[in-house]
Amino acid sequence: MIEMRDVGFAYPREEALFQGISLELPRGSFHFLTGPSGSGKTTFLRLCIAELLPTQGRLTVFGQDAAGLGRDAIAGLRRRIGVVHQDTQFLDHLPVAENIALPMTVAGQPVDMQAIRDLLAWVQMGPQARTMPPALSGGERQRAALARAVILSPDVILADEPTGNLDWDMSLRLLQLLIELNRSGKTVLIATHDLNLIRAAKQQVSARVLRIAGGRLQAAGAEL
Ligand SMILES: Nc1ncnc2c1ncn2[C@@H]1O[C@H](COP(=O)(O)OP(=O)(O)OP(=O)(O)O)[C@@H](O)[C@H]1O
């Protein structure tokens, strides 16, 4: 689904953040991405959706070389990748249901109210459909963000520290939703600092753990 060959990346006028990254996220796989704060996890996710392009090497998304893709092609591939952003990024003046519908509106699709109701029920947020985002708890925000990320039924789900501010029970609930998505065939990548979350996931799914450190991406140690 997403493949990197000897990829390096540097922000403009900065030293290389990483180099020599080769990996493949096959269809239906489950990956975790760990690494110290500032090692480049968010940057790596932005590369995966071709929001940033490698400054070295080759990035292929759904079989297409990300370099030289036109705006329409990039918009098309982003519709196939759902992202749960670290800061959730809701429009605070729109109720939860409208926020979840936004990817449909942006994609020029008619808003499918039944799909939105089904998703709200799946994340156990039916009663909050009309709630404004600032009134949501941390766990509700993350669940709503996950619902929004999957409203277009993407093939790949990328989640950036989705359990960052959640207590353990809520972290496990969110993890369970991501595991369900993976069991339904979706490719899942979760960036997280939380090694307990990774351990909990590994009891249920066969997950690979990647670690970015010192500009390199490696398989994490056997202690996980
Ligand atoms: N737009 C940008 N321009 C220049 N440098 C940037 C930009 N965005 C991020 N950086 C730098 O790149 C490095 C990696 O940032 P990134 O957010 O990818 O790390 P991270 O591993 O996700 O961090 P955290 O775990 O704290 O969220 C940091 O040093 C950051 O300051």
TrEMBL record:
SMART domains referenced in this protein's UniProt entry, alphabetically: AAA (SM00382)
Keywords per UniProt: ATP-binding, Cell cycle, Cell division, Nucleotide-binding
InterPro entries per the UniProt record, alphabetical: AAA+_ATPase, ABC_transporter-like_ATP-bd, ABC_transporter-like_CS, ABC_transpr_LolD-like, P-loop_NTPase
Source species, domain of life: Bacteria
Location of the ABC transporter domain: 2-224
Pfam families: ABC_tran
One GO MF term: ATP hydrolysis activity
Entry GO CC: plasma membrane
GO biological process: cell division
The keyword Transferase is assigned to this record: no
UniProt-recorded name of the protein: Cell division transport system ATP-binding protein
Organism expressing this protein natively: Paracoccus alkenifer
